[in-house]
Write a structure and sequence with these properties.
By secondary structure, the protein is of the alpha/beta class. Helices cover 25% and strands 14% of the residues. Helix 3 (145-154) links the parallel strand 3 and strand 4 (159-162).
Length: 186
């Protein structure tokens, strides 16, 4: 087997090519940057399409360009506060007090407090449930809002609610005492 081969045309290469093997073409200058530029163009295109898509979908993207006034949307009018009735004391209105807590004697304690405050307490008893959180004063007629607020003023943290829940009872107002009520010591 011969160890050397005769020279042919593939052995004559210019020295400036710096290549290995006869079938490789010389690399062109700047060829590597073509992929970088294509990737940069694709990234810019995707960012532009995404920004336009977000603008169209939810209209929350506000882009301001200096020198161009932005389109202003009119502010929504603020709702006017609903006037509430002033708290009043009406001794002719009867109040029923219901205990909505597992503690005994709470309805009687609130009834005594209301009687001292000038209210006529009709009856005190337990509510249907013992897991009431917030003390609430119920009234069935809008004209009784001032009286309901007067009762609520004697019970700090209580709420006032216009509802027909206790409209069938004998009392004008109904207080359901919740676990937020702190009984006075003594």
């Amino acid at each position: 087997m011969p160890t050397s081969y005769p020279k042919d045309r593939f052995d004559d290469l210019p020295h400036k090519l710096d290549r290995v093997g006869a079938h490789r073409a010389p690399a062109k200058k700047g060829r590597r940057w073509v992929a970088v530029w294509w990737a940069l163009a694709a990234t810019a295109l995707l960012i532009g399409v995404g920004a336009i898509g977000l603008t169209v979908l939810n209209n929350r993207l506000n882009i301001t360009i200096p020198g161009i006034e932005a389109e202003t949307t009119p502010a929504e009018p603020t709702p006017e506060p609903v006037p509430t009735a002033e708290p009043t004391t009406d001794p002719s209105a009867s109040v029923t007090v219901l205990n909505g807590t597992p503690t005994s004697g709470v309805a009687r304690s609130v009834g005594d407090l209301l009687t001292t405050g000038g209210w006529t307490v009709g009856s005190t008893s337990d509510a249907d449930t013992e897991d009431v959180v917030t003390t609430t004063v119920y009234y069935a007629d809008a004209a009784l809002e001032g009286a309901a607020r007067g009762v609520a003023a004697l019970l700090p943290g209580s709420e006032v609610l216009l509802a027909d829940d206790f409209a069938g009872s004998d009392a004008t107002l109904t207080v359901v005492v919740g676990s937020d009520y702190a009984m006075p010591a003594g």
